[in-house]
Amino acid sequence: MSITQQYLLDSYRAAQHDERTPPAPGQHDWQVIREMRDYGRFQAVVEERPAHGWIRAALARLAHSVHLGRGSVSRGAAARTPRPHH
Fold this sequence. Notes:
This protein is an all-alpha fold. The chain has helices at 3-16, 29-46, 54-69, 75-80.
């Protein structure tokens, strides 16, 4: 079942029970990205390392997990993502 089909099913069930509908898929994407950025900066400070360059590593992990989970990211795109230097 795709995420859109799940959203439609959840919306239908909510309507049947007079409940609030769930948020649409992708509605909070930018909020999640901002929270990832803030968390990455926080972790860098806690681990006493520079707070820059972490976003590439996070995006590479995200692209890799999407590739493994759904296959929507091509192998070439994930391979071209720069790796972080530790």
